[in-house]
Amino acid sequence: MALIKPIYPIPLVNKLKALLSFQLTKEAPPPTPIVYVDEHICKLSNNSMKARNMGLIPLLLIVLFTACLNANNILKSWSARERATIDSIELYKKSMERIILVVQK
Q1: How many angstroms separate the Cα of 71 from the Cα of each of 8, 84, 88?
Q2: Is the CA virtual torsion 86, 87, 88, 94 positive or negative?
Q3: Measured by CB atoms within 10 angstroms of the end CB, which terminus of the chain is less buried, N or C?
Q4: What confidence tens digit (pLDDT) does each residue in 18-37 have?
């Protein structure tokens, strides 16, 4: 079983003439992609827009917000680590100066 489908669906724009020529009865509802059919208008439903608006855009915003929070946290910890390293180097320099002064006397 292949993971990638070898057959892709035909876009509804390419099926417009066939969908407009489809004869509907009063009792039967229109087929799934058709929302409304008139003599001049055929409204089609596009489910990818619903999926994008209801799922993908909020998911993108959540990922973006999480990435910003993590980046801010990393920058704060990086600067704190730099400050701690500089302080430890200064402390080491002061202790080495004391040792050198004691040895020289």
Answers
A1: 40, 20, 26
A2: positive
A3: N
A4: 777 777 676 776 666 777 77
